[in-house]
């Protein structure tokens, strides 16, 4: 009796492994694009099983081919292009919102941006295709190599760790709590391992040993759910006494803010939100990044109105544009200031200049080249970075670490100060990206910093998500982008330092380097066995 194998999983696996030419690359690209559904706002995490299976099977085919390095790089790169184009399409809205003259850059900038990120997936694919061994546990090699290159993506050339595999898990949920031990890079390693493991089991020879990686991945997933659930149920988070913030949340658009009369419009809007009833019960008013399209500390009208509203009352912690003299030049900063008014006098309690600037948004790499092709005005739009991260001591509130905009997506940034803060203030201007998945992904990644550190985070984002994140990553208060108002909130207390806060990425390096060491040892034994058989 002849058996029809057309719909058996190993048959599809064999077809994909040897699928060459443009059809195979298109399939990989689509698999990568589908994987973006695992990120916010969808979090369809089972899609990783399908997508990573396609990538792993294709890489296994390249592993057996005549040019594994080239085939592996192309396979990983094409998958990554699909993943990052689908997951970061919203970057194009920042160019469009700058004005029609910048929209022409979108077809150039967006694919180039995705290609730079995809190159790291190509690197991992090349290494896997060249060095992975023919064993069911090669899935460990796959997860370790891709996790290591994700770490590199978060650090090389200032880094951009956007949409790491760990962010598949909604922040504040059970599995996300593993970041308090492993950080997002360690959790990314486990995520890749759990979702790639079923691909190894799809084989004609269903021997028990081939099922072990998939069963181990399922058991690991159950452990993460159970342990994270226990942490959520067993942790009580009280509020800090005597602290009450007012988040002034405006839905003003970039076109309104930077159009004719935008400065007056933005000033009136934020002053009205600040002066809402109940101001006498507030200790600090919070404004988002770049709330006003002016140099606030130089603007007499703005300071006069703030002094009248806040005299001998709440302090203001706000994102501002700032300029200063550096030698013979004037430099510009994206900054945070904390000011208060006592008996009519202005006191600046803290001033912080953003350190990590957004490429092509706040600093322009290869500005000379962009200027040469006709975008002179775009090439001149540059801020100067501040010297270092700080922990600010502001009267009436525990020590605070500012995280301006995308500084909140870098796990290593909040660890760069010797002093431990008791809360993060993430101020952002998400109005650049419209009603897309960008602000939602930004929110998830910001919340993971609280889980890693055990430190609460307060967020004020123009046309983004504002609110309060507790030290477990949950949001007891969330304000959506389309809302506008003054939201009075309390500050949760910080927890004791988490294992990740104490040891950083030590567990991540322990896991991945042990896998690499095992790979090297296995390779050495294989070579030794070959030499022995030839004697």
Largest sheet descriptor: 6 strands, mixed
How big is the Rg?
Answer: 25 Å
Q: From the 3D coordinates, which CATH architecture of the largest domain would you assign?
A: 4-Layer Sandwich
Strand segment tally? 11
Tally of structural domains: 2
Number of helices: 18
What is the strand content? 15-25%
Layout of secondary structure:
Elements lengths: L8 H10 L2 H15 L11 H17 L4 H20 L3 H8 L1 H4 L2 H26 L6 H16 L25 H23 L6 H26 L5 E11 L4 H5 L3 H13 L9 E3 L13 H11 L4 E12 L2 E14 L2 E9 L13 H6 L3 H4 L20 E5 L18 E7 L7 H17 L3 E6 L3 E4 L7 E3 L5 E8 L6 H5 L2 H29 L1
Parallel strand pairs: 1-2, 2-3, 6-7, 7-8
Antiparallel strand pairs: 1-11, 3-4, 4-5, 8-9, 9-10
Helix pairs in contact: 1-3, 2-3, 2-4, 3-4, 3-7, 3-9, 4-7, 5-7, 7-8, 8-9, 8-18, 9-10, 9-16, 9-18
